[in-house]
Amino acid sequence: MTLALETTTGLTVRLRLADDWFEVCGLDRLIPGRGVAALLPDGRQAAVFTDRAGRLYAVDNRDPFTGAAVLSRGLTGTHRGRPFVASPLLKQRFDLETGRCLDDDAVRVTTYEVKAA
């Protein structure tokens, strides 16, 4: 989803959890390239991001290599046209659309459907 900045006031970021949408925060709270950690109803955490084009992404906040909930603090970028977040601890990169680790094909993080409404 791509949104112009002037249209973001009043919109909220929502994640699909099972068969329902969970409200995370106001869209105006997201800064391109920086993540926001969201506590989910079941106690897990999601890392939510937006890019400069206004696309939204959400992945599990837990770094599978260390177990620490830190992906929301990672650096974002692109590799071969794929958006990623790099863990701030060991620097493994995770594709923000698929959750696949770009540095170890055997590892993934959960991704969430996300929208602004």
From TrEMBL:
This is Nitrite reductase small subunit NirD. The keyword Metal-binding applies. InterPro entries: NirD, Rieske-like_NirD, Rieske_2Fe-2S, Rieske_2Fe-2S_sf. Pfam families: Rieske_2. Keywords: 2Fe-2S, Iron, Iron-sulfur, Metal-binding, Nitrate assimilation, Oxidoreductase. Residues 22-117 form the Rieske domain. PANTHER family: NITRITE REDUCTASE (NADH) SMALL SUBUNIT, PTHR40562. PROSITE patterns: NIRD, RIESKE. The lineage of its organism: Bacteria, Bacillati, Actinomycetota, Actinomycetes, Kitasatosporales. The keyword Iron applies.
